[in-house]
Amino acid sequence: MKLITTALVCLLLAAMWPQDATSKSMHMPYARCCFNFLNKLPLQKSIRCYRRTSPTCSHSAVVFRMKKGQESCALSSRVRDYLKKIKPC
């Protein structure tokens, strides 16, 4: 009888466990969001393409894929004019 009672209590506690409503990780992995941003924009000729981060991320950003393979993030508000000259990935 104690085992059934313990199991029911555990199930009730698990069902009432609060969900983190502001958690973005359920919708989008952190690898797709930016948390560190460039202070200085890279040279346009060193950028292969760009992509925008997901709207579920905490910051609206642009991820630049460089010709050498690395990726760098910049805030969207700083690169609007810059993006007109670069193709999306």
UniProtKB/TrEMBL annotation:
Entries under InterPro entries matching the protein: Chemokine_b/g/d (IPR039809), Chemokine_IL8-like_dom (IPR001811), Interleukin_8-like_sf (IPR036048)
A GO-annotated cellular component: extracellular space
Domain Chemokine interleukin-8-like: 30-86
Signal peptide location: 1-23
Record's keyword annotation contains Ubl conjugation: no
GO MF terms held by the record: CCR chemokine receptor binding; chemokine activity
Annotated GO biological process: antimicrobial humoral immune response mediated by antimicrobial peptide; chemokine-mediated signaling pathway; eosinophil chemotaxis; inflammatory response; positive regulation of cell migration
Coiled-coil ranges (or none): none
Family annotation (SMART domains): SCY (SM00199)
Keywords, sorted A to Z: Cytokine, Disulfide bond, Signal
The keyword Disulfide bond is assigned to this record: yes
Source organism, top-level taxon: Eukaryota
Protein name: Chemokine interleukin-8-like domain-containing protein
